[in-house]
Design a protein that fits this description.
- Strand 14 and strand 15 form a beta hairpin.
- Strands 11, 12, 13, 14, 15, 18 and 19 form a seven-stranded mixed sheet that branches. This protein has a five-stranded mixed sheet with strand order 2-3-9-4-5, covered by helices on one side.
- The mean pLDDT is 96.
- It has two domains: 120 residues, lpxc deacetylase, domain 1 (Ribosomal Protein S5, domain 2); 153 residues, lpxc deacetylase, domain 2 (lpxc deacetylase, domain 1, 2-Layer Sandwich), CATH 3.30.1700.
- The longest helix has 14 residues.
- The radius of gyration is 18 Å and the shape is globular.
- It has six helices and 19 strands.
- By secondary structure, the protein is of the alpha+beta class.
- The structure holds zinc ion.
- Zinc ion binds next to helix 1 and helix 5.
Length: 277
């Protein structure tokens, strides 16, 4: 298995969900064998994707000194599933565009860009021994297995969500059809608190499924269980930091970015559980 870049540069424009700022994004071919981000508004300063520089808050962000690249997880998920691991991503603001809150715009862009195989070997990452990571009532459990499979369980005390569970073998086809269209969701009661913290400044009924205490404010849903599907999208984006072809079964329950990243760190640091070759 070899690394891949894209055939041609693609440009995207949109708004950051937390910053609320308009941003241009260019995904460019690169022979570096790495995913590199470059801030055009910061004198072309660049930073490579690196688990040590990732912070999870309400999204996953790459932080290097005072330079930030925010909300990278949806694009990372698409690059990972499409097997593209050598690109230069330029942007002229600190947060990636959010589009409709799903990963569809990034899928369309990378399909337009095409793919090209490089003569650089790609790592293969296999779960070797079952592991369990817990935090309060959230958990991530991994077991060895052929291919890459995710089971995700969420439980919200809300009449439109409740308990949702979905298991899926992840490949480009299942991702494109079952996961990429699933949008971000948020609760109206949290909106004010987030905005006080200067978060969700760009969120709107066009990029977030909004729930009040009883109902979905801006239906219809794209899937009856769109919520758990979006959690799988975010989980893939965070697992993409392992950077390679992934084999194993993951079961996540009531998890979020911070626990996803704990699992990624555990796997990179514990060779008896995870073989990276
Ligand atoms: Zn997300």
């Amino acid at each position: 298995m070899f690394k891949k870049t894209i055939r041609k540069q693609v440009h995207l424009n949109g708004t950051g969900v937390h910053s609320g700022k308009d941003v241009n994004l260019w995904i460019c071919p690169s022979e570096s064998g790495k995913i590199l981000f470059q801030r055009k508004d910061r004198g072309d300063a660049s930073v490579g994707l690196d688990i040590e520089k990732i912070q999870a808050m309400h999204s996953s962000s790459l932080i290097c000194g005072d330079m930030k690249i925010r909300t990278i997880e949806h694009l990372m998920a698409v690059l990972f599933v499409f097997g593209i691991n050598s690109v230069l991503i330029k942007l002229d603001e600190e947060e990636l565009p959010f589009f409709d809150g799903s990963a569809l715009a990034f899928c369309d862009a990378l399909e337009r860009a095409g793919a090209r195989t490089l003569s650089m070997e790609k790592k293969s990452i296999s779960i070797k021994k079952p592991f369990l990571i817990k935090e309060d009532n959230a958990s991530i459990h991994g077991t060895p297995g052929d291919g890459f499979k995710i089971t995700y369980i969420i439980e919200y005390d809300h009449p439109c969500i409740g308990r949702q569970e979905l298991s899926l073998k992840i490949n480009r086809d299942t991702f494109r059809k079952e996961i990429a269209p699933a949008r971000t969701f948020g609760f109206l009661k949290d909106a004010e608190k987030l905005r006080e913290k200067k978060l969700a400044l760009g969120s709107s009924l066009d990029n977030t499924i909004v729930l009040d205490d009883e109902k979905i404010v801006n239906g219809p849903l794209r899937f009856q269980d769109e919520f758990v599907r979006h959690k799988i999208l975010d989980f893939i984006g965070d697992l993409s930091l392992l950077d390679g072809r992934l084999s194993g079964y993951f079961k996540a329950e009531k998890a979020g970015h911070s626990l996803h990243l704990k699992a990624v760190r555990f796997l990179t640091e514990n060779k008896e559980f995870c073989e990276i070759a």
